[in-house]
Design goal:
Radius of gyration: 20 Å
CATH superfamily: P-loop containing nucleotide triphosphate hydrolases
Distance between the termini: 23 Å
Structural class: alpha/beta
Helix content: 25-40%
CATH class: Alpha Beta
Number of strands: 10
Length: 280
């Protein structure tokens, strides 16, 4: 099933904009006190709009996940600027950032490790609301059960532990938890890669529906260009820590310019040719 990601939103200003963002890590050599700097990514410019999906693709080690963690405010970039709804985030201290974190939520690839195995489904969704001191205890539970239903989980499963759910159901649970604080931006880090084809389609349809109904902006990290062609409005290609090409999904697939983008698309087309030959 191919989801429809078009919305009625006609954005003028981005929800989130990053300009010249860079991240370096200081590391120490084994059996030595010598330290050295590793650049994860540098000079990245991106803009996320309401009701739209920007896919970030690239090879393993290109810096995609490090960039996602910085945008999600889980790490602090080394340089650059980041604005959320016009507000400069990198100049804020930890206390000032605390209430802002609710507006940008991240969903991880491995739902099993992303969820606390000792908490029930309801407790997992309630937890971020309790941390942010939102609603009363009874209101949190009521909202959690509503979110379970919204993402396709039966509310009667509220006392189930994460490992009692299937992989697709756990990913729905992570989505419900991310929605608990009514975010404006969702960062999706390879959220489909551990799922079978049927669950990939179902989760894509769920994400598409949520995006349209709530005008969410998505930064969707993926290595699967065949899936990207189904859900992305725009695609940014990351290579060796830099954005080397960024276009609408239609234009990028029709006329790639950077040699690395061409390599990625050639690989996908080669795989498709092999599959067609085998099915013939």
């Amino acid at each position: 099933m191919k989801p429809t990601l078009e919305s009625n939103v006609n954005p003028i200003e981005p929800l989130l904009r990053v300009t010249g963002l860079s991240k370096q890590y200081v590391q120490q050599r084994t059996f030595s006190r010598t330290k050295f700097t590793v650049t994860a990514f540098e000079d990245v410019d991106l803009a996320l709009f309401p009701g739209k999906t920007l896919a970030l693709v690239g090879e393993s080690g290109a810096g995609k996940s490090s960039l996602a963690r910085c945008i999600a405010l889980l790490e602090h970039p080394s340089a650059g600027k980041m604005e959320l709804e016009g507000e400069d985030l990198l100049g804020l201290d930890r206390k000032a950032l605390f209430p802002i974190r609710r507006r940008v939520q991240m969903i991880f690839q491995d739902s099993a490790s992303a969820l606390n195995p000792g908490l029930t489904a309801c407790e997992i969704i309630v937890e971020p609301m309790a941390i942010q001191r939102e609603r009363t205890k009874s209101q949190r539970r009521k909202h959690a059960l509503q979110l379970m239903e919204q993402v396709g989980l039966d509310a009667k499963w509220e006392r189930k532990l994460p490992l009692e759910f299937s992989g697709g159901q756990r990913q729905r649970l992570t989505i419900a938890r991310a929605l608990a604080l009514k975010p404006r931006v969702l960062i999706l880090d390879e959220v489909l890669s551990n799922l079978d084809a049927l669950n990939q389609d179902l989760i894509l349809k769920l994400l598409a529906d949520l995006q349209v109904s709530q005008s969410l902006a998505y930064l969707h990290i993926s290595h699967d260009l065949r899936l990207v062609s189904q859900f992305a409005h725009e695609v940014a290609v990351m290579y060796e820590g830099r954005i080397v090409e960024q276009k609408s999904a239609r234009d990028l697939f029709a006329s790639p310019e950077h040699f690395y983008t061409k390599q990625l698309l050639a690989t996908v087309r080669s795989v498709e040719s092999i599959l067609l030959e085998r099915s013939a």
